[in-house]
Every structure is written in C-alpha cells, then in structure tokens.
Design brief:
The chain is α/β, with parallel strands linked by helices. It has three domains: 170 residues, Rossmann fold; 165 residues, Dihydrodipicolinate Reductase, domain 2 (2-Layer Sandwich), CATH 3.30.360.10; 85 residues, ACT domain (Alpha-Beta Plaits, 2-Layer Sandwich), CATH 3.30.70.260. The strands form two sheets. Strands 7, 8, 9, 10, 11, 12, 13, 14, 15, 16 and 17 form an eleven-stranded mixed beta sheet that branches. A six-stranded parallel beta sheet has the order 3-2-1-4-5-6, sandwiched between helices. Helix 2 runs parallel beside helix 13 and helix 6 runs parallel beside helix 11. It is elongated. The N and C termini lie far apart (51 Å).
Length: 445
Amino acid sequence: MTMDALNVGLLGFGTVGRGAFDVLARNQGEISRRAGRPIRVVAIGTRTPSRTHAVLRGTPDVTVTDDLAAVVRRTDVDVVCELIGGIEPARTLVLDAIAHGKHVVTANKALLALHGNEIFAAASAQGVTIAFEAAVAGGVPIIKALREGLSANRIEWIAGIINGTSNFILSEMRARGASFATVLAEAQARGYAEADPTFDIEGIDAAHKLAIMSAIAFGIPMQFDKAYAEGISRLTEDDIRYAGELGYRIKLLGITKRVRHGDGEGIELRVHPTLIPEKRLIANVEGAMNAVLVKGDAVGATLHYGAGAGAEPTASAVVADLVDIARTQTADPEHRVPHLAFQPDQLTQDLPILPIGDVRTSYYLRMRVDDRPGVLADITRILADRDISIDAMIQKEPPEGEDQTDIILLTHESLEKRVDDAIANIEALPTVRGAIVRIRLEPLN
C-alpha cells in the first residue's frame, strides 16, 4: 500500500536548512524506501525569500515566504522543521506548531535546554512528537543511542567532546604549541568559530547539549540552569605541554554522572577543561570532531564519534528524525518512544543536581613559586591538612638568571570545596606568585 507523502514545513534556510533540503532531494528514493512513504518539503519560511528562490531555481510545489507563522499553520504541513536557532521566535513557533497538531523536528539545543520541559509537556498533551537528534553532536546519533539503543542499561555517566570549535582550538594548541588567542583567530578565519565565540569557548553551547543528554540518561527534567560551565579561554600552551609530560591531554568535556550523595543519589552536570589519560580513545579525538563516551552498567563503555556540525552531518540527523516521524505518525502517542526515554509520568524530581563544590574528582594544579627551600613543604602541608594527597609532581628548574619556577601537582580524588580552600591558602603564601591554575582530571574508567 502506498502512503501519502509526509509534508514538511521548513523554518530557516541557512546552513542546516539548505543541507536538509539537499539531502532530502538527493536521497529521495532511499529515504522513501526507509520511511515507507515520500517525504517532501512543501513550504519554506525564511527571512531572505529572494535568496532562497535563487537557490531553489524554480523547484515546483515549494512555497517560499518570510511569514514563518503561516508555514506553521498550513493545513497541508504535517511536520514543522525548526532550523532558525535562538530562543525567539523559535519558542513561539514551536509551541504554535504543537498547538496546531504538528510534529516538530528541531536542531535547537538552546531552546530545548532552556524550555524543553514546557515544550515536551505541550507535545505530550497534544499527542505529537518533538524530534531533536540534530540538537546534540550534529550527525552523531547519540540521542537515539541513549533513548533506544542503551535502554536496557542503568546509565552511570556520560563524558562528551560536544563542541567542535573548542576541540579544534585545543587540538591546534597542542599540535603547534600556539596560544589560545592565535588559534581562536585562525578558527574564526576558517569559519569554525563565530565572530562572537562566547557560547563555544566558555562552555555554554556544550552545557546546553549536556543538559539534554543528562535528562535522557537519568530520567530527570531539563535543568540547564543548574549546570556548571567553565570554558577554555584561560588555558595556556604551558598547561597543555605540562599535561602532555604527565601523560594526559586536555579536552573541553561535558560530564554528567549519577553519584552517591548523602543518604541518596545526585547528578553531576558540569562542563570544563579536563585532563584525560592520553591512552583513552576520546583523548585522541582531534579537530572539530565530536565524541560521546557513555558508561552503562550492562554494556560498559561505548564511544560515539563523528562530525558535530556542518550542513550535511547535521542534516543527516534532521532527515533521520523526519524518517522516524514518517514511520510512527499513525501510531498511538503512548506507543512512541518517549521524548526523554522515560515515560513522562516516570521522570523523577528526586535526583538533585550537585553544586560544583560537592563534586569529587582529581586535579591538576600549577603554581608559580619562588625558588627557595621550604616552599614545597608549605604547599604539601596545606594540602595534607585538607586530606588532599598528591599523585604526581613536576618541579621545573628556574631559567638561568631567574628565581621563580613552576610546580605542577596532580592530586588524588578529592572534594572540590576542599581544593578551593587549599588553593586560597596556597595563594596566600608569600612565596607563591599569582593565581594557581586548576584543571580537573577524569580517568574515564
């Protein structure tokens, strides 16, 4: 039996929107075979209709308009594909689509991280699907893996390189010994970084994506407002070199874990530069690529790797979501895969997100000190008084003619608030110059 086409209203015709349109056109036959029905774009909403018309070159049966709300409300549109990004008007358009009984596909991680609870509740009430594979890690199907492929597992933790811009910068700094500022300027010139790169380099983009994955992994509501985010802008080539001497590489990781906390459990939700043992596969992910390491109790560790951005890798995820909707559009809502893996009434509010001070991990500490007897003894005493033990150390000889040098310490696992207190007391020593550099360390066993 031949089914009617699934009609799509596309909002946005930038890099991802055009990529999705091109992939649908190029692979139309293959996609139809997999979906069991054709999938076709019938309307495009864009702020630049004339430019879009020029790209389409008179493609028949596609309406192009700058009235995005009109696309959402068209009676012949089955699925609204939101690819404009940002919070507004995206939020209003998505909620309007849901209210009109439309399924929604979106690549908008910021929208879901901030307003996902509201959007998913509205979709569940209307019996429509919100599909968002493209919102995390581009073409890497990590949402489907967490929601379906790993559904037999109790997820223990996730650690991901989920921002290609930051990974490109750190890879180039390590490979060439270049400064952060130099590589950032090159990343901007090559189109890897925006003119305003704040969301990428300060960990905000990664925190959006991590909040989504954490909700799916642990069956909790979206809680981006409780995520800890620290970026890479203060990293130096010295720290990357010292990490290498100790057998580690530095990556910007998004980490979420289920941990013991008090008499129960809590969730860590944090993004920051992280030392990873160089023998780990994820430590060797270079350039603008993404990788997500997931630890399940039954399956162990699984690594999901691929292009985290770009027109066609992201379009691959968008079109895959359209295929899923085409397959399940006629199924009863309660028989579809839940948006956040768990049935809506099974999401728990009983797993608190831990403040960063309650996190336990290991640390890299670099300090500039006067080269004189007793300095190291003072430092180690402060650490010992707070039950912080040292795992490894590098003490550099001062350059000729200078009387200051670097000491680099790796600690065993410790409570962050104790490390904060130790750092404050070490920085107060008259023999310690300037601020201590602290980078967290994860073995990822």
